[in-house]
Automatic annotation (TrEMBL):
Domain DOT1: 21-136
Protein name in the entry: SAM dependent methyltransferase
Superkingdom, taxonomy of origin: Archaea
An annotated Gene Ontology molecular function: histone H3K79 methyltransferase activity
Record's keyword terms, sorted: Methyltransferase, S-adenosyl-L-methionine, Transferase
Keyword S-adenosyl-L-methionine: yes
């Protein structure tokens, strides 16, 4: 089956990230990356059970921390979690993030895969006060250049800088003149480690998929190193097809 068919066969909660909560250490790394300070007002969009809010308050001492999530069960669990930890400057809201008020935000953690949500929120972020930092994972906000990169963490700061092309975005993210297999694997591995628990058995499979996605996108944008398909890429394409019945060759243009 084509990789699109494989992804569509997975539970929607996995694809849209509803069942994925970032590890605590990853959240800490992201908040350090954003330079979170005591004077900041922090919003975590898609906060789950609110561990990011607890970390922002207890370890970074932010003035205020707000978590927003559409999953009522997780919000209720998170509210109990914050209460048990006696956190009063952090709160959780059960709400659709596309209509939430976040005008006082100075730092926002935003990690979603739904393109409609990303575009809607990007338009909303543009209206926030100058200097607001938006932390994302994997890629910058659609159509805009990153202000800071420590892959897989990306930072956009308002007002946003328009990207001339996806090619320009990609080269800025990977900080290189061209992308070979080694670069694609290194960055895919960073992503896998950031979003997975340390004992995850699926890390290598995810890394293979993401490596191929990175390299194929680079090839299609004309920023891959060389004209030929590297032998490791050929090998992993074959492994996916032979052992997992997943076909990705059609993505090459």
């Amino acid at each position: 089956m084509k990789i699109e068919e494989y992804l569509s066969s997975l539970p929607s909660s996995i694809i849209n990230g509803d069942d994925i909560e970032l590890p605590d250490n990853t959240i800490r790394d992201m908040l350090k990356f954003a330079g979170l300070q005591e004077k900041d007002v922090f919003y975590h969009l898609g906060c789950g059970t609110g561990k990011g809010i607890a970390i922002a308050v207890q370890e970074f001492g932010v003035k205020k921390a707000i978590g927003i999530d559409s999953n009522k069960t997780k919000i209720l669990e998170g509210q109990t979690f914050l209460k048990d930890k006696h956190i009063t400057s952090g709160s959780l809201i059960h709400e659709d993030i596309t209509i939430s008020d976040m005008n006082d935000a100075t730092v926002i953690l935003f990690w979603f895969s739904d393109e409609k949500i990303i575009q809607t929120m990007t338009d909303r972020f543009k209206k926030l006060n100058p200097g607001c930092r938006i932390i994302t994972i994997w890629g910058p906000l659609a159509g805009h250049m990153p202000d800071k990169v420590d892959f897989p963490f990306i930072l956009n700061i308002t007002p946003f800088k328009k990207a001339e092309s996806l090619r320009q975005q990609m080269l800025a993210i990977f900080d290189t003149d061209c992308i070979d297999f080694a670069v694609a694997w290194e960055f895919a591995d960073r992503y896998s480690k950031a979003i997975s628990s340390r004992d995850s058995e699926n890390d290598r499979f995810l890394t293979i998929l993401q490596t191929l996605v990175i390299w194929i996108n680079a090839k299609n944008l004309g920023v891959a190193c060389g004209d030929d398909i590297p032998d490791p890429v050929k090998s992993y394409i074959g492994i996916l097809k032979t052992f997992f019945n997943i076909e990705v060759e059609h993505l090459l243009k």
